């Protein structure tokens, strides 16, 4: 029997600590910057300028140092917070490298964040449309009134009982010619 390319059964895939830290970041710009910094280190691992980030840099300070979730992601990747010559820095030790696996994780986190932000925007648009539609507002009021009416009613404590409904007779579909066959 040949393998037909079917996917394996459903499995729960555990996210790595880095993936969890990256998914917690709330700004796509921060993920873009982290990806760019990681690509630089992955492409040139021995280049010292890519292994040291200073808080004095406005973009680095705003996107990484001021965001505790971004700092947590950086620490998870192996970056160390230090004070060098009186300025706060993040450094990546010599033995620690960044691979394209981390870069792909950042790309996936950015894609997930953008999807989540788009869905939130769609939800806001739907909510605004519902709030501005007078028919929906009237229907919502009717539903609330019905809910309030049911809440004040006494609970049903007796079961249903059969009631006689006239002297009708039962007729089958075949007897009225609606059985879908030729009458056999």
Automatic annotation (TrEMBL):
Residues 29-104 form the PUB domain. CDD domains: PUB (cd09212). It holds the Pfam family PUB. Residues 149-184 are annotated as: Disordered. InterPro entries: PUB-like_dom_sf, PUB_domain. Residues 154-173 have a biased composition (Low complexity). This is PUB domain-containing protein. It comes from Ostreococcus lucimarinus (strain CCE9901). The lineage of its organism: Eukaryota, Viridiplantae, Chlorophyta, Mamiellophyceae, Mamiellales.
């Amino acid at each position: 029997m040949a393998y037909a390319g079917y996917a394996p059964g459903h499995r729960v895939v555990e996210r790595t600590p880095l993936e969890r830290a990256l998914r917690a970041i709330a700004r796509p710009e921060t993920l873009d910057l982290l990806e760019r910094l990681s690509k630089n280190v992955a492409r040139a691992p021995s280049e010292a300028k890519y292994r040291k980030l200073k808080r004095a840099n406005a973009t680095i300070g705003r996107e990484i140092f001021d965001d505790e979730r971004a700092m947590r992601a950086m620490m998870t990747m192996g970056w160390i917070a230090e004070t060098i010559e009186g300025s706060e820095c993040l450094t990546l030790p010599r033995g620690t490298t960044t691979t394209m696996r981390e870069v792909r994780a950042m790309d996936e986190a950015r894609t997930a964040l953008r999807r989540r932000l788009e869905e939130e925007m769609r939800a806001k648009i739907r909510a605004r449309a519902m709030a501005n539609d007078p028919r929906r507002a009237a229907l919502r009021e009717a539903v609330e009134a019905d809910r309030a009416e049911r809440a004040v009613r006494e609970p049903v404590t007796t079961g249903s009982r059969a009631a006689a409904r006239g002297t009708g007779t039962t007729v089958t579909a075949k007897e009225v010619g609606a059985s879908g066959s030729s009458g056999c």
